[in-house]
Amino acid sequence: MGVAGSNRHNQRREAASDASRANTSAAAARNGNGGRGGRSTKLKPLHFTIRSDVAASRDVHKSIMDRVEAQHYDEQSTFAIRLALEEGLMNAIKHGNKLDPKKTVHVEAKVTPKSTEIIIEDQGKGFHREAVPDPCAEENLLKCSGRGILLMEAYMDKVEYSHGGRRVKMVKKKA
């Protein structure tokens, strides 16, 4: 049995742009119930597919952080997730997809009372983690970029790269 009004919602959603889809997901994330009227005891994972555009990532970021805040994570864990999510999205959009508007970024987030797991996958060529220059090396200290991976790895409890470096999985346990 469908939810009342779900056909109208699905038609609007199918016709919406990437940003509108993210806004719809943001509302559901803020409600904490997948968009249904009542409270749900188990939160469904959030799923997004956005174009390679920094502006499109803002609604994804907000939706996930709204879910984290709704689970009452402490200030340090919330900061860590916010920073790692921002870095991961920017890496996928700028470095992975090279800001190519024809490429997309897929994001999945599972936020529970115990942990947050975020998977970000781009359509770029990928990379080898060991080939990324150490931003703490003397020759890299004055460079304006190159610290995102270091920050993600420092602030999250677990960071794994797969699919040739096109996918990152980050996990933060609630303190």
Annotation, overall tally of beta strands = 5
Query: Low-confidence spans: pLDDT under 50, at least 5 residues?
Result: 1-40
Q: What percent strand?
A: 15-25%
The 3D shape can be described as globular
Alpha carbon gap, first and last residue? 39 Å
Number of helices: 5
Oligomer: single chain
| SSE order, one letter for each helix or strand | HHEHHEEHEE
Class inferred from helices and paired strands:
alpha+beta
Biggest sheet statistics: 5 strands, antiparallel
Average pLDDT, rounded to a whole number, is 83
Radius of gyration (Å): 17 Å
Helix content: 40-55%
Q: Which descriptors apply to this entry?
A:
disordered N terminus, 175 residues, alpha+beta
